[in-house]
Amino acid sequence: MKKSIFMAVVAFIVSVNVNAQSDEPLNEISVSYGAGVSLIGDGIGNGIGNGLLDALGGRKWTNDKQFGTLGLEYFRHLNNPNVAVGGIITYSQYGEDVEHDGVKEGERTRRYFSVMPSFKYYYVNTKNFGLYSKAAAGVMLLSSESKEMTGQSKNDSKLYFMYQASFLGIEAGSQNVRAFVEGGVGEQGILLAGLRFKF
Questions:
Q1: 122-141, pLDDT tens digit by residue?
Q2: What does residue 12 show for φ and ψ, rounded to 5 degrees?
């Protein structure tokens, strides 16, 4: 009799745990906007190059137009609810004018597309709150278009290694929809924020 009761209790506990796990969302899709992106490294290189051009030929890059990073993420939680793997796609854009002796000669637009496999670890993961870190690494396509006032244009594209390391991320909301903010370095930005949908 006692053995039967014990087995019934164990079966009940197991069934509750299985149901709880099946109710836990395993997938998540996020959309984000970040500031302070690959333009950091690109800007340092441009700054040195543009400084030399200024000194040698009176050429200046002006009227910077920066568009931060749009990000789209997908993550799948593994057997451990604190661990998730997935991928990140990003897009950002940067534009500027070129002048010679105060006269505009042309303009340049750079577009950045990145694809990065990623890993996320949750320190805290409850139904309404999450605290996590995230790491990603992959490739970035830089597409550059230069136009001169004479009508001539030049297109160029290159592939680079790219990454994102979000040292601390905080999300809050319901079990299925949350707002989040992250701080880190990389293509998604030094600071990014967005919405996350779990299902």
A1: 999 999 999 999 999 999 99
A2: -65, -45
How, if at all, do strands 27-35 and 153-173 pair? unpaired
Residue 177 neighbours by CB under 8 Å, 6+ apart? 195, 196, 197, 198
* Beta carbons within 10 angstroms of residue 130's beta carbon: 22
The C-alpha atoms of residue 72 and residue 97 are separated, in whole angstroms, by 30
Q: What is the pTM of this model?
A: 0.77
CA 184, 123, 181, 194 torsion: positive or negative? positive
Q: How many CA atoms lie within 13 A of 40 on its CB side?
A: 13
Q: What is the pLDDT of residue 162?
A: 94
* Structure tokens that stand for 15 in this block: 């069934």
